[in-house]
Amino acid sequence: MNVTFIGLGIMGGHMARNLLDTPAVSLTVFNRSPEPMAALESAGATRATSYAQAVEQADIVFTMLPSPEVVETVAFGDDGFVAAMPQGALWVDCSTVNPSFSRDAAQRAQARGLRFVDAPVAGTKQPAEDGTLTFLVGGEAHELETLEPLLESMGRKTLHVGAVGQGSAFKMLVNAQLAQSMLVYAETALLGEKLGFSKDFLMDILPNLPVSAPFLAGKAELIREGDYEAQFPLEWMHKDLHLLEQTAHEADQPLYLASLAKSLYGSAKQAGRGRDDFSAIHAFLGRE
Is 105:251 a contact under the CB 8 Å cutoff? Predict the structure, then answer.
C-alpha cells in the first residue's frame, strides 16, 4: 500500500513515523519545511519534492495541517495535491477544521473521482509520539476497513462518529470541553492561592477530584514546574475556538462560555503566549 503523509509538524511528524511500523506500507512524506522530512527519510520514508510528486502514486493520503486555510491552499491551490491524486485514491484529513469545510472538501474531492474521510484526533504531542491517539472518523463505514491497520499504528482507539464532516464536528465538541476545562482549572487554582492554599497543595489535590477532567493531572505537574513547552500550542486552541464559534453560528446555537474562553485565549495569544502550550492560560491569568 502506497501511503503519503503531508504536514509533519508537532503532531504529523510523529504520526508519520509510527506509520513506518505498519507492515506492507510504503510511506512518502512532504512538508513545507525540509527538516522534518530528513528525519523521516533516515527512518525509511521516501522524501517527495512537491505535493504533486508526493501523491501521484498514493493509495491513501493523510494530511495533518494547522487550519482550514492551509488545507485549502495545500489541497486545492495552484500547486495543490488533489489534482495529482490517482482516481479512486482516499484522502484522510486529520487536520482540525470546521465540519462545513470538511463536507465541502469531500464534495470537491469526490468530483475528481477521489474518496474522502475526515479523521481529526483527540490527543496532543505525547500521544502522537506514543501512538495512542484517538481518531474521530467521519465517512463511509467500509473505508474504516482499509484504514484500520494504519490508524492502529498511530492510535489506540478509533471512533466512527457518522458521515463525512461528523469527525470534524465531534472534534469541535472535544476541544470546546478541553479549552474550558483548562481555563476553569487555572482560574480556580489561582483563586486557591489567594485564599491561602499552597500551590503544591492545589496542584496535588485539585486535578484528582471527581469534578476534574483527567488530563488536568498531567497539566498540573507541568504548571507546577513552569514548563509550558507546547504539546498543543495555545494559538491552535484559539484557532479551534474560532472554528467552534463559526460552527455554532451555522447551527444557530449560542455559545456563551466558549465565546468568553475564545476571548481569554486570544488575549493570552496577544500577550505573547501563542507558541506556549495552551496550559499557559494559567500563567496569563496569574500574570506570570
Answer: no
Which residue is catalytic, options 125, 171, 262, 269? 171
Query: How confident is residue 150, by pLDDT bands cut at 50, 70 and 90?
Result: very high
Compute the distance between CA of residue 170 and CA of residue 210 in angstroms, rounded to an integer.
Answer: 24
d(CA 212, CA 128) in angstroms, rounded, equals 23
Task: State the DSSP code for 233.
Answer: B
Is 171 in the active site?
yes
Phi-psi region of 255 (alpha: psi -120 to 50; beta: other; left: phi over 0): beta
Strands (E), the chain: 2-6, 26-30, 46-47, 60-63, 90-93, 115-118, 121-122, 133-138, 155-162
Q: How far from the centroid of its chain's Cα atoms is residue 92's Cα?
A: 13
Distance CA 133, CA 154 (A): 6
Amino acid identity, position 42:
S
Q: Long-range contacts made by residues 32-37, C-beta under 8 angstroms, separation at least 24?
A: 36/8, 36/9, 36/12, 37/8
Q: What is the pLDDT of residues 197-226, one digit of tens each?
A: 999 999 999 999 999 999 999 999 999 999
For the entire predicted model, the pTM comes to: 0.95
Strand partners, 93: 63, 118
